[in-house]
Amino acid sequence: MIRISDSTLSMMVAHAQSTFPEECGGLLLGTLSEHSGKLVLSVVEALRLENVRLESRHNRIEINPLDYAKAERYAMKKHLGVWGFYHSHPNADAIPSEFDRQHFPFTNWWYPIVSVKGLGNVHVRCWKLSEARDRFTEEAIERMPVFHE
Fold this sequence. Notes:
Number of domains: 1
Number of helices: 3
Order of helices and strands: EHEEHEHEEEE
Structural class: alpha/beta
Number of strands: 8
Radius of gyration: 15 Å
Strand content: 35-45%
């Protein structure tokens, strides 16, 4: 399961809408806990990353390794882990593609996909890649309240 605030989810959707019809993506920073024998990611922050791919940006995303390294250092300073990668599927369903299966780097990460099919047609689903890297399992998305001090 992935727990995420409405504001973070809204930021991910806004990112996908702002780059439509090109793909976008970013990293999920947070903490892990266990609930009923399953790992749960509580997302504290989502970091937008630039799509540096030069061609096929409508159905591919590529991130700069230096941007990833900066994000990892930022997460460490905040005592968080990098536990996921969100990306958009413009004019496609929020279902991982075969390309996603082959290129998602980690089986212990969460992979939300934001489907954008025009201005108001947005859907978000989250996935985890099996240890054998042969299939995805859908993960429940639980919206967390945001507490202000």
